[in-house]
């Protein structure tokens, strides 16, 4: 069989397909036309009383393959595809006494976005429904990996894999720049301070790594596919009762990119093709009763998630004899009972009350020591599984009233409680495939193993709970004819806690948010206008020590001379885990201060049993709970200028000010405007022009603080000069490294999107047989990231002896100001004309064409190429740029 390898060959074959399609279409049309002449009289008589049936059959094609173009539409592959749609309806005639009805319809059956639905029953009595649909989500067709076994949960390296290193820099550590013949073969400074080129042996080593490892990288398409099957039944024995029941089964499979870290040999990161294979069942059942002023509904909802992949295992790129294992999302269940009732108190007043109670459980077995390689779980687990349980309960009520013709009032209250009753235990584990080493200052304390390593994490899980109380009040008054004023007040209180935690676990245990809102509406002749404004303020007390809930050892006195725990020390001194906001102390610290905040630095990890810093910058606030003032303005204007011309404009402005956040998200601003002009010259000709503008800005601040020290030079005592920054000497810089203002940074991010489009439709051309339509749209998106701050970099020639000291006046350290990120660009053009030609009363020929071009530049992809990163495995993914043509023909038959 011949394989089509060139675009020209494909185009020629595509033209032959289209010619064949046109010939077949003409033949089918002739047959349908003959049939229609014979059936025309009957069609005219029955079309008013019998449901119409439609069948749409044809063929289309795509010029090139692109996962981005076919991200959700099923058109990711070059070549032909089928066009199959139908809508079949039947049952008793509309003018008969029978209520029997049935319907069977399907769309996109020639693509992997297809769906099928069937239903039948007696209107107002009972109905059966069945459905099937699928959706393919294409994620990347340029992802590359050396790992074998994609599509399984065990990823292995090729047998010929060589540990990638740059031997002239370090013969032992992994360095992925070795894959690039330029970045990997550069010269490095020797210990004598001399720029030294790689030796012939080192170049040969690098050439061997490239020749062996680079060909091992191969393409793996990343996509997931969701298929769903559903069935439902509803029964209404009389006008008072309704009983609907439904069930759906959903399966999702495929591959997604997932980042992971290993550190047993070297600290390296990989991006793996993560296996997705899980099922979700959902069930709904309810009984509703309504009579006069009352209605009541009792319902059940169940969700059952089952992950068929319990873990992912991958070989270590630094040493294939070792491997790492990571658990996948655990299976879980959720069962909920719901009750809703409503009562019409009077003709103008109504009360609706709802309540629910649910239980969410998760009890998958933990990965045991036999599953996770290299002794990651050598100390065992406190239990065989999480035995997770979250109980949810909610009650809400809403009262609406219309006391007079000019007033509308409503009041609502909601209580929502998420009670996490999961048992709290202490878990011991090593970081990312790391072997145990050293001796922990908590070894042998409070039942912990005497062999506990200094690099062992001693963590306690947090059973996070949340309780919401919310009140909503609203009034609307008709101030004049066709003019209304609306005002409202909202209050929300959220309480957060962790049952079983040894200390507060929430960043802000309680937050209160109040909102005042108003809206004006007016309809005056052919103009309708709306303007609304809302102001809200959220406040709460922030706890910078909440993360200590993860590390119960912070409540114990560690071995090594301390007389207090971490918690005791920070509370007695009014500190957090960040320690004092100060530079090097003027006199050496003693006692607990020297242990827990050496040189006024942060609390060392070992004293609370963690490999991660459990502290935050003083003044850091997480935006979800941080104090915030919010302004929101919305507007809308509609003008029917003439019988043929209508104009519409909308606008929205949001501004969030995190007024007490020194670090973290400080401000967020969003504004959007849109304009739409429609021209309807007649029923046969309509044109529409539209434009939208979106602008979002986010300002974030942080601090890349260093560690205070008394080091006064870099490499040798004469190397003391700092160029730039906030200090002139190495001694001064190191003395105040923790509070160096030049290490404060900010990130000002802006997303700006312009979209303009034009659509036109013309009907009843060529004696009413032809309809033309077209759409042109252009989208221009830009992301700009402006940054402030900078970092210090040591002069590579500032080395210890025997390297020579730097010449007098030569900086030993340079301060390099941060530079703005390159602009990310996305420009997309879409042209989509179509035509429909009536071949007969029952048959129509449809043709469509679409051209879409996406031009994208994104600096994030640049860092995933060979030769860019040192300690993360490249994927060589490319930004999604394409120019695609798609076209097709189909015949629609109506009977």
Would you give an account of this structure?
The chain is mainly beta and 895 residues long. The protein contains 6 helices and 39 strands. The strands form 6 sheets. The chain has a 27-stranded antiparallel β-sheet that branches. It has a 3-stranded mixed β-sheet with strand order 7-15-16, with no helix packed on it. Strands 31-35-34 form a 3-stranded mixed β-sheet, with no helix packed on it. A hairpin with a 3-residue loop joins strand 4 and strand 5 (126-140). The longest helix has 40 residues, at 7-46. The chain is globular, with a radius of gyration of 34 Å. Mean pLDDT is 91; it is low at 1-45.
Category from helices, strands and their pairing: mainly beta
Radius of gyration: 34 Å
Helix content: under 10%
Main sheet makeup: 27 strands, antiparallel
**Alpha-carbon distance between the termini?**
42 Å
Average predicted local confidence, pLDDT: 91
Short description:
The chain has 895 residues and is mainly beta. The protein contains six helices and 39 strands.
Task: List the main descriptive attributes of the protein structure presented here.
39 strands, 6 helices, mainly beta, disordered N terminus, globular, 27-stranded antiparallel sheet, single chain
